[in-house]
Write a structure and sequence with these properties.
By secondary structure, this protein is an alpha+beta fold. It has four helices and eight strands. Strands 1-4-5 form a three-stranded antiparallel sheet. Strands 2-3-6 form a three-stranded antiparallel sheet, with no helix packed on it. A two-stranded antiparallel ribbon has the order 7-8. Strand 2 and strand 3 form a beta hairpin. The radius of gyration is 21 Å and the shape is elongated.
């Protein structure tokens, strides 16, 4: 049985209007459902575009966590639990409002982690 020539496959896909792209340097992919989240570190992600519709293929080892996963300061089991706030949300609030990191985190906590609400809160104060 003859092997498949990757170049011919790519040409055939192009003729059918199928484009693929591999995302480079992906550090993490998070998929959230109603009651849990899947965190995939160092994932390999390929995007396939067919007739304007994108399909994402993700390859990697996942860790399933509850949505209310809490973070505590390292080594301090007695510290109050802090809800996990994604770094990108903190950076977004900082960039949109000019607020310090501490103020951005404070606003996000006050707004249940919702960046848009935190931005509005900081802009209106």
């Amino acid at each position: 049985m003859r092997g498949v020539n990757p170049r011919q496959v790519k040409q055939a896909m192009k003729k059918m209007g199928i484009e693929t792209e591999e995302l480079k340097d992906v550090t993490e992919v998070i998929i959230r459902t109603r009651d849990k989240q899947y965190v995939i570190k160092d994932a390999e992600v390929t995007i396939m575009k067919v007739q304007g519709q994108k399909t994402f293929q993700i390859v990697g080892d996942d860790k399933v966590m509850p949505l209310d996963q809490v973070l505590r300061p390292a080594g301090d089991k007695d510290a109050p639990a802090q809800p996990s706030i994604p770094e990108e949300d903190v950076l977004l609030v900082m960039s949109q409002t000019g607020a310090s990191r501490e103020k951005a985190i404070e606003a996000l906590k006050a707004c249940d982690g919702q960046p848009a609400e935190a931005i509005i809160k900081l802009m209106s104060s």
